[in-house]
Amino acid sequence: MTDVLREVKTLFPSVYIHLGGDEVAFGSDAWDNDIKVQELKKTVGLKSNKEVEAYFIRRMADSVAGINGRIIVWDEMVDAKLAKDQTVMMWWRHDKPEQLNKILDKGYQVILTPRLPMYFDFVQQENHKYGRKWGKGFNPLQDVFDFAGSQLDSLGKRKNRSWAFRLIFGLKQ
After folding, report:
1. What are the tens digits of pLDDT across the range 33-55?
2. Cis check: omega of the bond before 117, within 30 degrees of 0
3. Are 130 and 115 in contact (CB under 8 A)?
4. Of 8, 20, 57, 102, which has the maximum CB count within 10 A?
5. Contacts of 139 (CB under 8 A, 6+ apart)
6. 31 CB-contact burial (10 Å; exposed 0-12 / middle 13-18 / buried 19+)
7. CA–CA distance, 70 with 32 (Å, rounded to integer)
8. How far, in Å, CA of 76 to CA of 100, rounded?
9. What is the pLDDT of residues 78-113, one digit of tens each?
10. pTM for this predicted structure
């Protein structure tokens, strides 16, 4: 695992490596019948597939830290007990603001990437024929332009505005 991550860092020289962490649960039911996963659970003392997922992401995070890197993960990993100084979370589920609050409450750096309005594969006008829709709605381009201001206002109530500005517009290494 570390060798693969080292190769990724060589090919894409950056402090950050995005490990993901979303969509794992869509296939984890198969782990219930996997002998190796069951052995791991027993050996390490893991009770659920969610704990297996968190264990794996922590192992990968340790490997990335060992090659002088930091990880970026999706907001599903907020409960994985990742090192705050080595982890940046990406909040993407606009319909789950409680995840963003959890990330902030736990002290992680965060990149705001809510699918509405930031996913550009969503339909942007009523007359567009191609693209995805969230429910029956669309993603107006104006919402994309207005995003930073509305997020700054809502985050500014929790922390100072300059802190919120750093969340949206860049990370410090």
Report:
1. 999 999 999 999 999 999 999 99
2. yes
3. no
4. 57
5. 116, 117, 119, 120, 122, 123, 124
6. middle
7. 31
8. 10
9. 999 999 999 999 988 888 889 998 998 999 998 888
10. 0.79
